[in-house]
Design goal:
single chain, alpha/beta, TIM Barrel, Rossmann fold, Immunoglobulin-like, 7-stranded mixed sheet, 4-stranded mixed sheet, binds beta-D-glucopyranose
Length: 764
């Protein structure tokens, strides 16, 4: 369909039909997170939008891919594009047209409850991943929705906090990944709940209309976050195009089979209950009665601090027709909204069946999608494996095939699928850590949990007050692995205790301790320490066995008070359904640990956001006055030694760097040699020394400009070429915009922001 064809449809639409296309409604099939009914008369098919970044969330299973941080840790953008395509295909298989992802926010606050949905603390790195995932999703004929635009760095009071951030910092750190995502063809962008410098993003004309649509030439649509609009006329005139969910909280919960129980006994309601209660529920909806749900601002639940008020702002469904009739919103603006929405849908083939003379219904039916295919299962394993970061290894890893292993940890029987909130996915199958090791080991395996299960947090459990459980570890089948004859389950049949874990550890060649954090949308972590008594468990096990390996499955950085006592540490993020299989592949050296840190690991008080003015903010404002000094930029500038720097990650092989050379204005080359007797994968990183700023602003010493990975057999070497991002050479000048200062720019090449092996100079 051409632009003229889309224009012809818009021409045909009545005012009411146009308004019907710019807000959500109740999904007739009850599968979508957001739903737009379409216009039957003209053959414009209904549109279904689904979460989210880690897998497709409907009420049916889907592949539970590793968290975005795990994907980012691969430093492999080709893998990210394959992931995006698989995600798109799974969306299509579930009859969904739009994916609400990828999570594109820069990781500024290590405590942020949604860091696992985001990529990185570096804008070039985040941008490369956002762009690749977007390109993959769109290539599967599904609209991608990078979110949440912009400066949404925390969950605490996310619906009203104002990110106080000045222009150069916004330009250099928080906007670039969105720009890259848009450049990669995203058909949609989701606005965030928060305010930026006092104005809600959903009403931020400069950010939505001037920067995103104007400067960047974005011709897709801006969708609100759910209940993330504060007005009708202001948001529409500022550039918001689609209001979601467009219905009341009760109607939304009802359509998801999560109605708060009428008797208030917390049972939740099944789909059939929801139908039976239809009348009562719509009456409740009319009155906007949200009682019994955490969407109720008076509910008092832990999440309320992080939830939007579903009653604020007004609905496009009711207020937009009169606003156009009054002239408060020009009809041309409404036409623009509809054109943007239809244009993005058309770009993925959604309107292919529509012709003016003969409406047939649309949809890209030639590609029916695919879900839970062997290819997608393998991809989930590949990302989780490659994203696993070997933080420390004193030689205990890789494990010998026949080592006797004690598998320890409160959650060894379940895969860590993700954090709580809108990204929760229920997989078809999962491998628990215990199963992964049992399947791979040729020695004896004992299992000792050591502590009672550490529960994840499910926002949806809280929303439905006991409704359907889609949270991690809840529903999917986990085999018990009892086929392994060598297993001695120390604490099977008795309450797990630290003593049992110590006994198991003492009797084994190696103790592998699996620990996890607990993170969710709508709340930030209150500490970077592991929850419950997991730190104590590690210390006790390490005391009993010198060959103790810790596998940490966390949403972001964690504190590691036991670091000096253990022999090896893996950061496995939230690995998704392939948890056991992927971790075993790395532990036993079937794969080289390919991951590198996309975030700095340090004690909480060492980050700039330890200042409460910066996080969670004071009087409704979070001061971004650390400026450009976020993540490794801060630690480098302060000369502070973090626990582990950005980019860090060990290999089982060993690499030598030689001959760093500039081969053009934006390219460096380096020869990398694998000097070990085993194959390995090296991630080569290039950092550009930051220019001196003519103003007072503190600049970081250096910034990531590019990266490339190389797989090398024993004794092999290769020349690796790294393309350098132009923005790393520049700075955003408040009066002149992006500026590259003339003169020599030093480019260092190495293994992390701290471990640089050589440099070259590029003249500008
Ligand atoms: C989240 C979005 C999500 C939406 C729909 C919101 O609470 O912030 O990321 O896409 O819900 O589930």
């Amino acid at each position: 369909m051409t632009t003229e064809d889309v224009a012809a449809i818009v021409e045909e639409l009545t005012l009411a039909e146009k308004v019907g296309l710019v807000h959500g409604a109740t999904d007739t099939e009850g599968t979508a997170t957001g739903f737009v009914p379409g216009v039957d008369r003209l053959g414009v098919p209904p549109v279904r939008l689904t979460d989210g970044p880690l897998g497709v969330r409907t009420d049916e299973p889907a592949t539970a891919f590793p968290a975005s941080t795990a994907l980012a840790a691969t430093f492999d953008t080709a893998l990210a594009e394959r992931f995006g395509r698989a995600l798109g295909r799974e969306a299509t298989a579930r009859n969904q047209d739009v994916l609400l992802g990828p999570g594109t926010n820069l990781i500024r606050v290590p405590h942020c409850g949604r860091n696992f949905e985001y990529f990185s603390e570096d804008p070039v790195h985040s941008g490369a991943f956002a762009a690749s995932v977007v390109a993959g999703i769109q290539s599967a004929d599904v609209v991608a929705t990078p979110k949440h635009y912009v400066a949404n760095s925390q969950e605490t009071r996310r619906a009203e906090v104002s990110s106080e951030v000045d222009e150069p910092v916004l330009r250099e750190l928080y906007l670039p990944a969105f720009r890259d995502a848009v450049g990669a063809g995203a058909g949609s962008v989701m606005s965030s709940y928060n305010r930026v410098n006092g104005t809600y993003v959903s009403e931020h004309e400069r950010l939505l209309t001037e920067v995103l649509k104007g400067e960047w030439g974005f011709d897709g649509y801006v969708v609100s976050d759910w209940f993330g609009t504060e007005s009708v006329v202001e948001s529409v005139n500022a550039g918001l195009d689609l209001q979601m969910p467009g219905i009341s909280a009760s109607e939304l919960l009802d359509s998801m089979g999560m109605s708060p129980d009428e008797e208030g006994d917390g049972d939740g309601a099944s789909d059939s209950d929801a139908e039976a209660n239809d009348e009562g529920d719509s009456a409740a909806a009319d009155a906007d009665d949200e009682a019994g749900s955490i969407l109720d601002p008076d509910d008092g639940s832990d999440f309320v601090d992080g939830m939007p008020d579903p009653r604020s702002g007004g609905r496009y469904a009711e207020a937009l027709v009169p606003a156009v009739e009054r002239g408060d919103v020009p009809e041309s603006r409404l036409d623009d909204m509809v054109t943007r929405i239809l244009g993005s849908l058309d770009a993925v083939g959604h309107l292919d069946g529509v012709t003016e003379s003969e409406p047939t219904g649309g949809g890209s039916s030639d590609d029916a999608g695919a879900i839970d295919t062997p290819e997608h299962r393998r991809l989930a394993v590949e990302i989780a494996t490659r994203g696993t970061v070997l933080l420390k290894n004193d030689g205990v890893l890789p494990l010998a095939d026949d080592a006797d292993v004690a598998v320890i940890g409160p959650n060894v029987d379940e895969a860590v699928l993700g954090g709580g909130g809108s990204s929760e996915v229920t997989p078809f199958a999962q491998t628990a850590p215990r199963e992964g090791i049992e399947a791979r080991s040729e020695g004896a395996v004992s299992v000792a949990r050591g502590l009672p299960r550490v529960e994840g947090v499910s926002l949806f459990d809280a929303m439905g007050e006991g409704g359907e459980d889609t949270a991690d570890g809840g529903e999917a089948d986990t085999a018990d692995g009892s086929e392994n004859a060598d297993e001695t389950a120390i604490d099977d049949g008795r309450e797990p205790d630290v003593e049992g874990a110590v006994t198991a550890a003492a009797a084994a060649d190696v103790a592998v301790v699996f620990v996890r954090d607990r993170a969710t949308e709508a709340a930030d972590r209150d500490s970077l320490r592991l929850p419950e008594r997991q730190d104590k468990l590690i210390a006790a096990v390490a005391d009993a066995n010198d060959r103790t390996v810790v596998v940490a499955n966390a949403s972001g950085p964690i504190e590691t008070p036991w670091l000096g006592d253990v022999a090896a540490v893996l950061a496995g993020w939230y690995p998704g359904q392939a948890h056991g299989e992927a971790t075993a592949a790395v532990l036993y050296g079937d794969a080289d640990p390919g991951g590198r840190l996309p975030v700095t690991f340090a004690p909480a008080e060492a980050y700039p956001t330890a200042d409460e003015r910066r996080f969670p903010g004071v009087d409704g404002e979070a001061a971004y006055d650390e400026g450009l000094l976020v993540g490794y930029r801060h630690f480098d500038a302060a000369g502070d030694e973090p626990t582990y720097p950005f980019g860090h990650g060990l290999s089982y092989a060993e690499f030598r760097y030689e001959d760093v050379e500039a081969v053009g204005p934006s390219t460096v080359e380096v020869t990398v040699a694998n000097v070990a007797d085993r194959a390995g994968r090296e991630v080569v990183q290039a950092y550009v020394d930051s220019p001196d700023a003519p103003d007072e602003r503190a600049r970081p010493p250096r910034e990531l400009a590019g990266f490339a990975a190389v797989e090398l057999g024993p004794g092999e070497s290769a020349t690796v070429e790294i393309g350098l991002d132009e923005r790393a050479f520049g700075r955003y000048d408040a009066s002149h915009g992006w500026t590259v200062d003339a003169g020599p720019h030093v480019v260092s090449v190495g293994r992390s922001s701290r471990d640089r092996r050589g440099s070259a100079t590029i003249e500008r």
